[in-house]
């Protein structure tokens, strides 16, 4: 027992020495690994001629999986650098303080670079025991070239639709004009931050992005709905009518019905060529006045015009005009 107790301090010292040697070995290994890192990993490159993207991910999964993840991380980093510059240098959007355009513009800046990255090049790769690092870069001039090419193609396509939309609007075909202005906005939405002005004639230019959005909002505000009652006692002869600010009847405008009296078998309709929409078939199960509300359905209009979720959200936040009619049981007899 005494012999064992005298050996214990030596065993403890040996364990401590082994731990010290191991830690020194780990430190030397870490120092050697750091020393072998490429310069771009130790210090992020600064070069105004290029955007730089560096992706670092752990070696988890198959080699192909973590290599692909490192590449995507590098491209995400590249896109983030471009977004930072776009946000700081973006053209002030003329409609940014009206009808939600500020949020729409910022949303486009957040997504445009990820969708339109092209022309980037692989520079280098470095691996440690547990991580892989990839470095990509994109020439600023190369990015600008591809961006301008896509922008010009989009503006030319949008100009044709814009000119058609103006004609439809002037002839009171608001539904078709609304659809075409929406298409214009969808075509140029990715370039709102750089400006979307294009020549319409030799001496006339228009910012198609700003103007299309403004005209969409103007159409939505100009549409009004009224009650057109041909006979107060005959339900089938009662109508709503869609008009503009000059009381001009407007066709092909969708309307949504809400009724407090009972379930509606038909809760949507579209105005005819005279701007008229017949009342839906109504029932009442309570001996009290009920309310029939008819609302211009901007949600339906924009969803028919585009599948773009951001444009849909923008327009769906606007309020369509509505009107309310009091319905009594006597009206339904």
Task: Please describe what this structure looks like.
The protein is 47% helix and 21% strand. The chain is an alpha+beta fold and 333 residues long. The chain folds into three domains: 38-142, Endonuclease I-creI (Roll), CATH 3.10.28; 149-219, no CATH class; 223-332, Immunoglobulins (Immunoglobulin-like). A four-stranded antiparallel sheet has the order 9-8-11-12, covered by helices on one side. The chain has a three-stranded antiparallel sheet with strand order 1-3-2. Helix 3 packs across helix 4 and helix 8 runs antiparallel to helix 9. It starts with a helix and ends in a 6-residue tail after the last strand. The model is unreliable at 91-97 and 230-234 (pLDDT under 50). It comes from Natronoflexus pectinivorans.
What does the secondary structure layout of this molecule look like, with pairings?
Blueprint: H1 2-36, H2 39-42, E1 50-58, H3 63-89, H4 101-115, E2 121-127, E3 131-139, H5 140-170, H6 174-188, E4 197-201, E5 204-207, H7 208-222, E6 224-229, E7 238-243, E8 254-259, E9 268-270, E10 276-278, E11 290-296, H8 298-305, H9 309-316, E12 322-327
Antiparallel strand pairs: 1-3, 2-3, 4-5, 6-7, 7-10, 8-9, 8-11, 11-12
Helix pairs in contact: 3-4, 5-6, 6-7, 6-8, 8-9
